[in-house]
Amino acid sequence: MSRRHRRRAKDLEFQRAAAVTTLLDQPEVDLDRLRSQACNKGLSNRELRSKAWPVLLGIDQATFAKAEYESLAVGTHRDTSVVDVDVQRSLWSYTEGWSDEKRDCSRAQLKSLLNAAIGHHHGNAFYYQGLHDIASVLLFEIGERPAFLVLRCLMTNHLRDFTRPTLEPVMELLELLMPLLEQADLELYRHVSSSGAPPYFALSWLITWFAHNVPALDQITRLFDLFVASHPLMPLYVAVIAMRASRIKLLKCDLDAAEMHRALHNLSITAFASADKLAHEAAVLFRQCPPSAVIHSRKICMNKSCAAEAHEVGGHWQVPEVPQPCKFGSSSRLRLWSYQGLSFAAAAVVLGVVLSTRAMSDRSFGTGSGFLAHMPPLL
Amino acid sequence: MYGGQPQTIKVVLLGEGRVGKTSLAQRYVRSSFNEGQAATVQAAFFTKAVRVQGQEIEVALWDTAGQEKFHSLGPIYYRDAHAALLVFDITDTDSFKRVKRWVDELHAMAGERCQLVIAANKQDLQHRSVSEEEAQEFAASQGAAYFQTSAKTGLGLEELFTALLSSVLDSLKDQRLHAAQGMQTTGRRHGGLVVASQDSISERKSSTCC
C-alpha cells in the first residue's frame, strides 16, 4: 500500500470513528443510524465497539453485577468439562507472539466469561463447541465485563438456535444457504449443487460468526459489527458473499461432494474480499433477498429454528423463543429430507429411543444428557 | 476393475471431545502433531494415498466434532463409511463410555460393512484411567479391532491403518465374490489433496481446488 493510500485509509478510519462517536454521544442514540454505520462502514475501534455493541443489542451496562458475575464464573453447568477442554486449547488466533503466561491469563478470563454467561441462563441456553470462538473475539475486543453482557444477550437472541440442546435447528437454518447462493450467483449455485455437497460446510461459519475461520482480529471484528447490528441470519449472507468472492477457485473444484466440502471448509474467508467488502455486500444482498422472501419462494418450513422469524422490537433484533407454525403445510417439510443422510439421521433417532434406557442409567455427560437423549424427533 | 483409479476407502473418526481425533488424523496424514490443536467445530476431510496389499488406496478420512451436542451429525459422516475409527483417551473414563455408545449405534445403524476399530489414544501419558484389559475385552466382545496409539509420538498409527485398510480390502473382495454384480463403491470421488506416506507409491498432485 502506497503512502498516499495509507494516509487515505487513515483519514477514512478517522471519519468513521468520528461519526460513531457523534452518534454515541447523543443523549438519545439514533439506533437506525448507528446500525447503518455498523453494517455499512463498521464501528472503527475497540473503545467504540465496547460502547456500541451493547447499545445495538439493547443492553444496559449498568445491569452488570460484579458479585453475580464472579459467582457464576466459578459455577458449574451441564457442559463445564467441555468448556474446560475447549478453553485449554483455545486462543491460538489473535495472540501471535504472546507468551504462554499471557495466553493462559486470557484463557482464565475466557473460561470465566463462558461459565458466567452459560450459568446466567440456568440451563435454558447451552454451550456448544464454537461459542468459545465468539467469546474470544468479544473478550479481546471489548473486555471481560462488556463481553459477558453481550455474550449472555446473544445466547438467547442472535445465537438462540445454536444454544438449544441439539444442533437440529442449525441444520435447518443451513437449508437457506443454497437458495441464497442461487440468488447471488446462479452459476456457482449450480456448480456447488451438482457436487452434491450438503451445506454442512457452512456450519462453523454460522455458529461461530466466522470467528473459527477468520484469524485476523481487525477483520473478524468488522464482521461482528455487521452481525451485532443485523438480523441473526446475516452470517448466511456473508457466507454466500464469501463464496461468490471465491467463485473462480470454487468453479475449478471437481464435481464431488467430499472435495467441495474440503474446498469450502478450507476457504480463506477474507482472501478474495475484505471483511468490509463482505459486510457491505452481504447487507445489500439481505435487502434484496431477506430470509422471509427465500422461505416464501422456496416454501421452506422452519419447524425447529426461530432465527428466520426474528423481528425488531424498539430498534433491537429479537428472536422468538419457540419456532413459528409452518405456513406451507406438510408437503414442503419433505424438503428437509432431500439431503442425503437425514433419513439416516431419523433412523438414528429410532435407535436413540431404543438405547435411551441405557443412557438414562449413565449420566456421564451431566444432568439429563444421556446418549442421544438430545436428539429430538425429526418428524 | 477401477479403470486405474485407486480404491477409495472412507474412514470416519468418532469419539468424545479432546480425545485426539484431529491429532490422529493430522499425524497419519501429515506426520505432524500440534500441541495447541483447537477444538473441531465441523467435520473436516483429509485424504492420503497409500499402497496396501499391492493395491493403490486413497484413504478418505472424515474427522468430526466430539461434543455430545454434535452427535446427531454423526450419521451424515458414518453412513457409507467402510470403517469407523472410535477414539478414546486412556486417561478419561468418560471418553471410553462414549466409545461404547458409538459401538452400539454403529452396530445398529451402519451395518456389517462398516468395520469398527478402537484406538486407545494418548499412550504417551502416564496416568491411565481405562485399563488395558477392559478396553481389549470390550473391543473383542464387539468384534472391533483394537490398537494402542499416541498421536503425539505416532505410536501405533501405521499399524492401525495398515490393518484397517487390509481388513476393508479383504471385506470388499469377499463382497465382490458374493455379489459379482452391482457392488456399490463409495469411490465417486477422486483427486484431491494427497499427502504421500512413507510407503506410498507416489505423491499425486491435487488436480482440484484445494
From TrEMBL, chain A:
Xref: PROSITE patterns: TBC_RABGAP
One Gene Ontology molecular-function label: GTPase activator activity
Rab-GAP TBC domain location: 43-231
Family matches, as SMART domains: TBC
Any Pfam family hit: RabGAP-TBC
Annotated TM spans: 336-355
InterPro entries in alphabetical order: Rab-GAP-TBC_dom (IPR000195), Rab-GAP_TBC_sf (IPR035969), TBC20/Gyp8-like (IPR045913)
Name this polypeptide is given: Rab-GAP TBC domain-containing protein
Species assigned in the record: Apatococcus lobatus
From TrEMBL, chain B:
Keywords: Nucleotide-binding
Xref: InterPro entries: P-loop_NTPase, Small_GTP-bd, Small_GTPase
Pfam annotation, one family: Ras
Molecular functions per Gene Ontology: GTP binding; GTPase activity
Protein name: Ras-related protein Rab-21
